[in-house]
Write a structure and sequence with these properties.
The chain contains 20 helices and no strands. It has 414 residues and is mainly alpha-helical. Helix 1 runs parallel beside helix 5, helix 12 packs across helix 15 and helix 17 packs across helix 19. The radius of gyration is 29 Å and the shape is elongated.
Length: 414
């Protein structure tokens, strides 16, 4: 009985693999429809498995595939079972992988690779160093894209979604996916890759850095802050660490950059509610100032962030938790600096944030922030000195006039 169940499950997953392969062949053969077909395939593999398919995939006799990632969601998506299947049966995934490689430059190709082959990359040995470099880059890029799909949703806890969405158009499916689905098994990338040195070292060093920068941005979104200390302890070495600081500084820089890019209020509130976990981190003064300036930008209505009342209150709560000693004069000063520096710091966000250049970008932006503050400070001092010097000159002129009135005696005829 157990053998029959396993055979049935494997036959079902093999049939799914063939359907994916057929759709990729169609995308390769029709350049005009390529983007739509890949977008449709991406939506298909991210959908939740329906009940009938679950009976086949998750049979009582088979424990090969874990149905749930603990603590993250209570659903099983097609990429969950297919990514595990391609590890157990690599020959079913090879034709799909070969076609994805041919379509590397197309939209959604890296998305599909990240969903289907994120486990295969770490469980199956890749001999060719060039292929390993390409796969590593594709994993980070694809993960970045699907993470952004997840964080652009208006909810952080989504209800169930069944495969009936497959009958919808591709654009409708993506709208529903944006609203209801959490993409990518983040727990695998965090716990089984980032915190496992044997798997992490399978990536090239630059991909390791990019993966940690990516996870730094989304670790709050997936409620994974409990493992923050272990995550920081496993941070790879960065060549810019002498400029920006250690792992904690790099993590906070990436998190700050992410906060400034979030546009969805529930997601931003979720981040602000989790940010209190940063209490006790040893940060450089520039990093701490950067975080404080970012939070202050959410406390005032209007530009540059235009926060709602709820976001402003959440930002004040975060400031009270992280920086309990505050005074009103310093708060107004930070607000003034934030508004005046908003245009200047936009230079720092021109570099894509999911690469190693984001740390340099953040550092340049921090220098601009500090430079703006210094200019404001010196400008204020200089203006006061100018007023003082002008007052001194005015006083001297008045004194000379008074003396001249006393000394000059009008002439009279004798």
């Amino acid at each position: 009985m157990e053998q029959n169940s396993d055979s049935r499950r494997r036959a079902y997953l093999t049939a799914l693999s063939l359907e994916i392969h057929k759709k990729l062949l169609r995308a390769e053969a029709s350049p005009s429809q390529r983007r739509n077909l890949l977008q449709e395939l991406f939506a298909d593999v991210a959908l939740e498995v329906d009940d009938r398919a679950k009976d086949v995939i998750l049979s009582r006799a088979s424990d090969a595939i874990a149905p749930v990632e603990k603590g993250s969601r209570n659903r099983l998506c097609f990429y969950d079972v297919l990514s595990e299947h391609f590890v157990q049966v690599p020959e079913d995934g090879k034709p799909i992988l070969d076609l994805i490689v041919k379509l590397w430059s197309q939209s959604f190709a890296s998305h599909i690779f990240a969903l289907l082959f994120h486990k295969w990359l770490f469980e199956i040995k890749v001999e060719d160093s060039e292929k390993l470099l390409r796969y590593s880059s594709a994993l980070v890029q694809g993960s970045t894209n699907v993470f952004w799909y997840a964080s652009s949703t208006t909810q952080t806890k989504q209800p169930s979604l069944v495969l009936v969405l497959a009958a919808l158009s591709c654009s409708d499916r993506l709208i529903h996916l944006n609203r209801f689905m959490i993409f990518l098994p983040h727990q695998y990338l965090l716990e089984d890759v980032a915190l496992d040195q044997s798997r992490l070292t399978k990536l090239v060093i630059q991909a390791q850095r990019d993966l940690f920068l990516l996870l730094s941005r989304f670790i709050f979104f997936y409620n994974a802050v409990d493992g923050l200390d272990s995550f920081l302890n496993h941070f790879p070495a960065f060549p810019t660490s002498f400029l920006v600081g250690g792992p904690a500084d790099i993590f906070v820089i990436e998190l700050t950059d992410q906060l400034q890019k979030l546009k969805v209020e529930p997601v931003l509130l979720h981040y602000l509610s989790q940010i209190k976990v940063l209490q006790g981190l040893e940060l450089r003064m520039t990093t701490s100032t950067r975080l404080k300036t970012c939070l202050y930008s959410f406390t005032s209505p209007g530009g540059p962030m235009y926060p709602t009342r709820t976001v402003r209150h959440a930002a004040w709560d975060a400031l009270d938790a992280l920086f309990p000693t505050r005074d009103k004069g310093r708060e107004e000063y930070y607000r003034l600096c934030t508004r005046m520096a908003s245009e200047t710091t936009s230079i720092g966000w021109a570099v894509p944030s999911t690469s190693h250049q984001s740390v340099l970008s953040a550092d340049v932006s921090m220098v601009l922030d500090v430079g703006t503050v210094v200019l404001l400070l010196y400008g204020h001092i200089g203006f006061n000195l100018y007023l003082s010097w002008d007052n001194i000159q005015t006083m001297e002129v008045q004194r000379d006039l008074q003396l001249s009135k006393k000394i000059v005696v009008p002439l009279t005829d004798n």
